[in-house]
Design goal:
The chain is an alpha/beta fold. It is built from 15 helices and 13 strands. Helix content is about 40%, strand content about 15%.
Length: about 375
């Protein structure tokens, strides 16, 4: 059949490729970003109770009211931003769906959308499906992948419709500072540029530092979609429940798309999460939980020939393999699987034009015994 693809440049993602390779070779999979441990037993019980209670039909299109209210309460408590649960909070089928719905809602053919590289692989396909043109601005890898706000400013043109951000950043772990928020305010002030802020790792930040959500800034929140994920937060990636907070005019447009993408999201999961969030302390436990795993894994990497980079947030850590090999990142990552039995993600593939820097990404959202097994294998590299 002669079908003209809407995404001719999109093939199988590097995450899928590396996970398949890990399965083929029986490798420890530290590539794809999902936990290999279960979620809280209380949350499991609440899901079963929601099913038994009959919450098995369509949820309201915008999401179960109690869950939207819990999200609004959390955002007000942590970031000082009051979103109206009825008009400004939407429950989505994971963060990826929220991102695509937001892009399709506001980007028109001919619009430009700025993305920061290395970038998560779902962003650009969303832009292309909306008819937009991605404009790539690299993060400064010499400063821990910090954004260069002057380069962002220089990329803005009269056609710029949207700026897509992801902090804490996947894959680098970079977290925005208060100074970054101020700089971003200066960049977008007096422009019509909207912002999509992917904050799925908002609760996985380390060393006592707070997450600088765009919701903290009245000026930025007024033009932003702020996206988060219960899957990343509570180790339930397979439940596919996310949220998007945005001013009412933006939320109205988001929901116009959302209702025809999925209409409604996993009903029993929404009810379970709403009850689970009645205890706000669940959020507070996450930084220490993941910091212990980060510290275990980084300490182990420091005893290998790989050099771990700073990891202020997320459940990923980058490692420099320059002391081991001059191979391109994809080749090294594949050899790491085949010869040493550990899967990682080559960062070069997260750029529009591969940028070779001899860096791979490991996921440490794993059981401690899984991390130790991987470290034992990496010690032989």
């Amino acid at each position: 059949m002669d079908i003209e693809s809407k995404l001719p440049g999109v093939g199988t993602t590097v995450f899928t490729v590396m996970s398949a390779l890990a399965t083929e070779h029986g490798a420890v999979n530290l590539g794809q970003g999902f936990p290999d441990f279960s979620c809280d037993p209380q949350l499991q019980a609440l899901l079963a109770e929601a099913v038994a209670a009959g919450h098995n039909q369509y949820a309201p299109m915008a999401g179960v009211a109690a869950l939207r209210e819990a999200v609004a309460d959390k955002t007000a408590r942590l970031y000082g931003r009051s979103y109206d649960a009825g008009r400004e909070v939407t429950v989505t089928a994971g963060a990826t769906q929220a991102i695509m719905a937001a892009v399709l809602a506001v980007v028109r053919p001919g619009d430009e959308v700025i993305v920061l590289e290395p970038t998560y692989d779902s962003y650009v396909p969303s832009i292309l499906l909306a008819g937009g043109t991605p404009v790539y601005v690299p993060l400064d890898h010499r400063r821990g992948y910090a954004p260069d706000w002057e380069r962002v400013r220089a990329a803005i043109t009269p056609r710029t419709r949207l700026l897509m951000l992801n902090f804490p950043h996947n894959p680098s772990g970079y977290c925005l500072s208060a100074a970054d928020l101020q700089a971003l305010e200066d960049v977008v002030r007096d422009t019509g540029v909207l912002v999509l802020s992917d904050e799925v790792y908002e609760h996985i930040v380390f060393d006592g530092k707070p997450h600088q959500s765009l919701a903290r800034s009245a000026e930025l929140a007024a033009r932003s979609f702020v996206v988060s994920s219960f899957g990343k937060t509570f180790h339930i990636t397979g439940w596919k429940v996310g949220t998007c907070c945005a001013p009412a005019p933006l939320t109205t447009e988001l929901r116009r798309v959302h209702q025809f993408m999925v209409f409604a999201v996993n009903t029993p999961a929404q009810h379970a999460l709403a009850r689970f969030l009645a205890e706000p302390a669940h959020y507070g436990r996450l930084p220490a939980f993941y910091q212990a795993k980060r510290d275990l894994f980084v300490a182990g990497l420091q005893r290998t020939r790989l050099r771990p980079l700073a990891c202020p947030g997320t459940y990923f850590v980058l490692a420099d393999y320059s002391a081991v090999s001059t191979e391109p990142e994809a080749d090294f990552a594949q050899r790491l699987v085949r010869e040493f039995g550990v899967a990682a993600i080559p960062i070069a593939g997260l750029y529009a034009q591969p940028f070779e820097n001899r860096i791979v990404r490991f996921c440490f959202a794993k059981r401690d015994d899984t991390l130790r097994a991987a470290l034992e294998r990496l010690s032989r590299v």
